């Protein structure tokens, strides 16, 4: 069954490249056929030389055949390599494109390094499989049949001796090849683990250093590297063993042919030319046998990689539903909220709900603050608002329509997200600001920079907007990164921005700058903030209190301070809220 599945995978992979594979096989076969005619001419040439006259036209034809054969085989190899490279490029495009669309809930379960290994290492392993198996294997098989035919025509008795010797060694080789497959799969997965571990360590290098865990992590990486090393070594040992076994079979067959042939020549049953012709034809038998062995061995080695690639390609992706549905809203006359949660239930794992019947509406202008203890479900509300996940029960509505029937691209263009640690990407400040947006004109860019208080920041940078921001934007301060992320979001003109406010301490100037930015932003679009600061909470037009996955209260700061005991107790526990005194403005 497993073998069948492997060949099926291989056939599916080859679909679309059949022309090139057949061209490589045809060239390879042409080369082999040219080679097979050589013994016939060689026999005439040797018999002629033995009779004392060199047949120059036959020798000339032989030389031409040698040259044509070499050219055909070189071209076949190039076509094979070209096909392998093209297929690897296409596979990588498919795997990386697929990975970018895999559902977050599925992606979060896998390990990033292993996925990188599959997208890069495994696709390269498949190239070897293609280069060594498809064209060569096919040509080898036809070449083998043709070589056997020529040998049978030359001398069936000698052929029988050859078949016995080659047959035995081929059977032994197939047994080795099976083990190669198992070793190959464990080598590929050990390399996946190694990459995952490395990615984990480099991603958290500050934590590793701060916890003085270099030694433990080095040991862990070493043991993954060792597992990959042992599996690769096992495979190399088996491949190495199979080479001499093949050579031994070839040498044994030659010796047998020369011994039996010599006695037949001396008894007059065959001429010296026939023996030379047969021996030459035998060398062309060795090549297809070796090619078939290589092909089978490559399929075994590559099938582990192909299996891992197929696993990635079968991961479920975010798919847009094909139809758009009418508004869910009733015939209400009040303005449609930009976002609404109606009795939303959601859990990352079945039977463990994190959100338990959430209801709220976000108007198309103004600022809404989400407050609540750690683990209450605030970030999860954002994840559903951004459609990283869909609710298990209930409905998320975007501008009055069930979000499940909206295209992901449209939804995320309408709802922008600025996360708390707002990582930027390596590149210049300009590239980060324009990431994912249509190129705005200079006036628009200046307006957004002014609104987010970034103009003085840009002016102070050595190359202005073209200053590189470093890996994950580390060359900017936390507050600056936050404002760049808000500016990036604003440039794509969303109707609602979700903002996870930074918890790290901001100095009074930065805090004032952020508050002013948020005020400005909430005049051009709606803003929903997971709020950790008194200033943000106090200036919000609406506050949602979240506790254990439920909205326990809704109102302004002064209303909640008066009416909601839980909000007051939350304020008592949270220093930043303790300081809040009811604002005369509220
Ligand atoms: N990706 C995830 N997979 C599984 N469980 C998760 C995931 N993200 C969050 N959780 C769990 O869901 C619950 C709510 O987490 P969430 O991050 O929404 O809370 P929060 O209110 O934003 O907390 P904080 O203020 O500390 O960020 C927690 O129990 C958390 O362990």
Order of helices and strands: HHHHHHHHHEEEHEEHEHHHHEHEHEEHHH
Overall body shape: elongated
Give me the side-by-side strand order of the main sheet.
6-7-8-3-9-10
Largest sheet: 6 strands, mixed
% residues in beta strands: 5-15%
Membrane topology: Multi-pass membrane protein
GO molecular function, one term: ATP binding
Subcellular location: Cell membrane
Domain ABC transmembrane type-1: 22-301
Structure commentary:
Residues 339-573 form the ABC transporter domain. One of its GO terms (molecular function) is ATP binding. The structure is a single chain. This protein has helices at 2-14, 18-50, 56-101, 104-107, 112-154, 156-203, 205-210, 214-266, 272-313, 378-385, 408-414, 429-433, 442-451, 455-460, 478-491, 508-524, 534-539, 557-563, 565-573, 575-578; strands spanning 339-346, 355-362, 366-371, 393-398, 401-402, 415-418, 496-500, 526-530, 542-547, 550-555. It contains 20 helices and 10 strands. It has a 6-stranded mixed β-sheet with strand order 6-7-8-3-9-10, sandwiched between helices. With 586 residues, it is an alpha/beta fold. It is elongated. The N and C termini lie far apart (72 Å). The structure holds adenosine-5'-triphosphate. Residues 108, 348, 354, 372, 374-380 line the site of adenosine-5'-triphosphate.
């Amino acid at each position: 069954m497993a073998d069948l599945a492997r060949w099926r995978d291989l056939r599916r992979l080859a679909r679309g490249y059949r022309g090139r594979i057949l061209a490589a096989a045809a060239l390879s076969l042409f080369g082999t056929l040219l080679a097979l005619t050589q013994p016939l001419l060689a026999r005439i040439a040797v018999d002629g030389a033995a009779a004392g006259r060199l047949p120059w036209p036959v020798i000339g034809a032989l030389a031409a055949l040698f040259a044509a054969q070499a050219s055909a085989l070189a071209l076949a190899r190039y076509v094979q390599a070209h096909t392998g490279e093209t297929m690897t490029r296409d596979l990588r495009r498919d795997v990386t494109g697929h990975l970018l669309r895999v559902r977050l809930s599925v992606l979060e379960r896998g390990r990033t390094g292993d996925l990188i290994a599959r997208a890069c290492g495994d696709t390269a392993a498949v190239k070897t499989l293609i280069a060594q198996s498809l064209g060569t294997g096919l040509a080898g098989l036809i070449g083998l049949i043709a070589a056997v035919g020529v040998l049978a025509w030359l001398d069936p008795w000698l052929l029988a001796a050859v078949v016995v010797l080659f047959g035995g060694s081929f059977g032994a080789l197939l047994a080795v090849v099976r083990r190669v497959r198992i070793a190959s799969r464990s080598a590929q997965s050990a390399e996946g683990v190694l990459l995952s571990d490395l990615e984990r360590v480099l991603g958290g290098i500050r934590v590793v250093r701060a916890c003085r865990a270099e030694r433990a992590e080095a040991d862990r990486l070493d043991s993954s590297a060792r597992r990959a090393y042992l599996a690769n070594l096992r495979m190399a040992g088996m491949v190495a063993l199979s080479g001499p076994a093949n050579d031994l079979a070839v040498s044994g067959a030659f010796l047998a042919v020369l011994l039996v042939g010599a006695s037949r020549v001396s008894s007059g049953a065959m001429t010296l030319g026939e023996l030379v012709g047969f021996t030459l034809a035998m060398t062309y038998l060795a090549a297809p046998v070796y090619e078939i062995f290589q092909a089978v061995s490559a399929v075994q080695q590559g099938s582990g990689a192909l299996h891992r690639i197929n696993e990635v390609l079968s991961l479920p992706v975010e798919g847009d539903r094909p139809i758009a549905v009418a508004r869910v809203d009733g015939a209400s006359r009040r303005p449609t909220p930009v976002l609404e949660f109606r009795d939303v239930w959601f859990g990352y794992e079945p039977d463990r709900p994190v959100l338990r019947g959430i209801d709220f509406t976000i108007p198309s202008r103004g600022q809404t603050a989400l407050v609540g203890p750690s683990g209450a479900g605030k970030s999860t509300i954002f994840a559903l608002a951004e459609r990283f996940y869909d609710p298990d029960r209930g409905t998320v509505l975007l501008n009055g329509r069930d979000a499940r029937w909206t295209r992901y691209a449209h939804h995320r263009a309408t709802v922008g997200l600025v996360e708390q640690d707002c990582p930027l990407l390596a590149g210049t400040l300009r590239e980060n600001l324009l990431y994912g947006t249509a190129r705005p004109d200079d006036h628009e860019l200046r307006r957004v920079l002014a609104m987010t208080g970034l103009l003085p920041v840009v002016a102070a940078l050595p190359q202005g907007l073209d200053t590189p921001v470093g890996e994950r934007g580390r060359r900017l301060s936390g507050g600056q990164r936050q404002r760049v992320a808000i500016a990036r979001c604003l440039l794509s003109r969303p109707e609602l921005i979700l903002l996870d406010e930074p918890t790290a301490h901001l100095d009074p100037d930065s805090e004032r700058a952020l508050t002013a930015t948020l005020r400005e932003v909430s005049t051009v679009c709606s803003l929903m903030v997971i709020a950790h600061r008194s200033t943000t909470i106090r200036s919000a037009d609406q506050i949602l209190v979240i506790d254990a996955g439920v909205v326990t209260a809704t109102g302004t700061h002064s209303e909640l301070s008066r009416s909601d005991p839980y909000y007051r107790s939350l304020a008592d526990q949270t220093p930043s809220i303790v300081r809040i005194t009811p604002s005369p403005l509220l």
